[in-house]
Amino acid sequence: MNHMASRSNIESLPDDCVSKILSHTSPLEACRFSLVSPRLGSCADSDTVWRSFLPSDYKDIISRAVSPFTLNFSSYKQLYHALCHPLLIDQGNKSFKLDKSSGKKSYIISARELSIAWSSDPMMWSWKPIPESRFAEAAELRIVSWLEIEGKIRTRILTPNTTYAAYLIMNVCHRAYGLDSAPSQVAVTIGNKVHRGRAYLGHKDENKRKMETLFYGNRTEVLRNAVLQGEGIRVPSKREDGWTEIELGEFFSGESESDEEIKMSVREVGYQLKGGLVLEGIEVRPKT
């Protein structure tokens, strides 16, 4: 009875009032509301509602798209849903996307946009196209003993008042070595706040254990067992796009006028030779 009375009350309001009310909800709630009745569905689909769900800088984002003509739309709702699919921006060096349910922003920074120690040395890193990559090229680690990767992003381009996490997007090729010998130091820094952790960049199988024992004795196994006695050692997890990811840390984006620099890093300087890491980039997305 209360539900019917509530529906009757809102249907008595003018369409522009209903649309204004819905513009203060969320994309998910607006979609649910559109199923109540044809008239309310029309209000829920209005430009007033869906314009409010778009980020304030959506025009700037569209202007930076590699292929803006792929964003053909006749309503703000269509534009919103188009931006819920990955959009290459900034000469193809970043990917942008909105979360479909909340409208919050996420970015993937390509490997080319990251600071990677020794990345300009072709003996240590190889840059090449990868079929599964969203970018023109990815970076494959050939051999280094000092692994250091850092990415940066500013809070002003993110959704305000949102907890974000940063993820290293990577794969490990079949000839990889040294990536699972010791954990890397991972960190996310904003101002004077640092969120630190440790992570293995690869999983070790039995054949690799035997080979490393032949080359290095039991030194790497002793080190691995020592660190595993602690807590929070991260390992790669599968993504839906065929890559794997490791969480580097999290941060809070702050108010809309905030403009702080976020530094995201991976560092392993144990002087153990390593190779076979295929780097796609770093993703910054809302924490779920």
N-end to C-end Cα span: 35 Å
Structural class: alpha+beta
Mean pLDDT: 87
The oligomeric state of the chains shown is single chain
Strand residues, percent: 25-35%
The biggest beta sheet is recorded as: 9 strands, antiparallel
N to C succession of SSEs: HHHHHHHEEEEEEEEEEHHEEEEE
3D shape: elongated
By DSSP, the count of extended strands is: 15
Low-confidence segments, ≥5 residues, pLDDT <50?
1-6, 225-230
Tally of contiguous helical segments: 9
How much is the radius of gyration in Å?
23 Å
Helix content: 25-40%
Question: Which properties best describe this structure?
Answer:
disordered N terminus; 33% strand; nine-stranded antiparallel β-sheet; 9 helices; 288 residues; alpha+beta
Could you characterize what this model shows?
- The protein is of the alpha+beta class.
- The chain has 9 helices and 15 strands.
- Strands 1, 2, 3, 5, 6, 8, 12, 13 and 15 form a 9-stranded antiparallel β-sheet that branches. A 6-stranded mixed β-sheet has the order 4-7-14-9-10-11, with no helix packed on it.
- The radius of gyration is 23 Å and the shape is elongated.
- The protein starts with a helix and ends with a strand.
- The model is unreliable at 1-6 and 225-230 (pLDDT under 50).
Give the helices and strands, then pairings:
Layout: H1 2-11, H2 15-22, H3 27-33, H4 38-44, H5 47-53, H6 58-63, H7 76-83, E1 87-89, E2 94-98, E3 105-110, E4 115-116, E5 125-128, E6 138-141, E7 147-154, E8 163-177, E9 184-190, E10 193-199, H8 206-216, H9 219-228, E11 233-234, E12 237-238, E13 244-252, E14 261-268, E15 275-286
Parallel strand pairs: 10-11
Antiparallel strand pairs: 1-2, 2-3, 3-15, 4-7, 5-6, 6-15, 7-14, 8-13, 8-15, 9-10, 9-14, 12-13
Helix pairs in contact: 2-4
